[in-house]
Amino acid sequence: MKQFYSDVIQYRGTHYDFGYFQGELLKRSPILPNREKQWGPKKNRHFLINPEEYKDIMATFAPAILDEIRGLADALHMDMEKAFRRFGGYYLEFTRSGCSIFTDNAFMVRNYDSHPRGYEGRYVLYEPTDQGFAVIGPSMQITGRIDGMNEKGLVMGYNFTHSKKSGDGFLCNMIGRIILETCANVDEAISLLKEIPHRHSFSYVLLDAAGESYVVEASPREVAARRSNVCTNHFHLLEEENRYRQEETRQREKTIQEQQQHAINPYQAFNVMNDPAHDVFSGKYDASAGTIHTSMYFPEELKAWFVIGPARKPVIFDFNKWLSGEKIMVKRIKGELEYHRPFVNME
């Protein structure tokens, strides 16, 4: 087992200032140089849309995030076209991933399964002072979110279905960020998902403070919502969008349903996902399907649990106290994975 970590980042202020703050942090981080190495000669294909068109689209859905990208660009002395390519969350390549989610009316627990080399190791608490809701959760591509919860108690996580037959649109991580910053409940999030353009096919799992839980199946061609409390990596409504081979994802869904029947409290539900003994946690890292983190969110209490690696006790964040002005004292969330290569935030 090798040690890994996520840095905990806290900020209150305008989006531009938040972007500038993150840019200053990135100057001292290996994240951007490591990303450049990973992308290699593909990098010029990572952004295939006119920057002016991108600005118009972002201005429709999340204009404040444009200010964050401007702040990043200014701090990093980067032109805006390159900043959009790095941080815009629109029309880029995406590495396939696994992921499993279970919801109760009081919580959501989620395994994020992917390749460790693509994981940037940033857990972010941000409260905007210009517009948008405060959000807690792990980041992807700096500006996006892998999963998370906002100050209204809306919780979001997403699961990959496929990247074939892709279209012009936002990546899952930016869609997740926009949902959490702009939507107060499940109904608003479903409406947004039906309106926003999607690059790839993903399921977005939503839970709000009223206990409403939905899975929204979204592709570049169609979006459909269903009530459900379990989600893996296949669609139920948009079946024509599914990958040819579905045996593993359907078996994992069945395992979660069976195992969670015996969980009598949130900690046991968390263990079903995080303890490999329950056959949900995955060690398939080279196949981009190994569990990197397990996260849990409680929308009524505004608390978040988070771990890196298997069979660990969670780090507990009281988001409600943080919103009241208390500072989180945790600097890093440490864990262990059975993998030999580091996250991109690690030397």
> What is the CATH architecture assignment?
4-Layer Sandwich
- Roughly how much helix do the residues carry, as a percent range? 25-40%
- How much β-strand is present in the residues? 25-35%
List the domain count as a whole number.
1
Can you tell me the CATH superfamily?
Penicillin V Acylase, Chain A
CATH topology: Penicillin V Acylase, Chain A
Give a quick account of the main beta sheet: strands, pairing sense, barrel closure: 10 strands, mixed
Mean pLDDT: 94
Distance between the termini: 17 Å
Helix-strand sequence: EHHHHHEEEEEEEHHEEEEHHEEEEHE
Derived structural class: alpha+beta
Helix-strand layout with pairing:
Layout: E1 2-13, H1 15-27, H2 31-39, H3 51-61, H4 63-76, H5 80-87, E2 100-103, E3 108-114, E4 122-128, E5 135-140, E6 144-145, E7 147-150, E8 155-162, H6 172-182, H7 186-195, E9 201-207, E10 213-218, E11 223-227, E12 230-231, H8 247-260, H9 266-274, E13 283-284, E14 289-298, E15 303-308, E16 315-318, H10 319-323, E17 332-337
Parallel strand pairs: 1-4
Antiparallel strand pairs: 1-17, 2-3, 2-12, 3-14, 4-5, 5-6, 5-7, 7-8, 8-9, 9-10, 10-11, 13-14, 14-15, 15-16
Helix pairs in contact: 1-4, 3-4, 4-5, 6-7
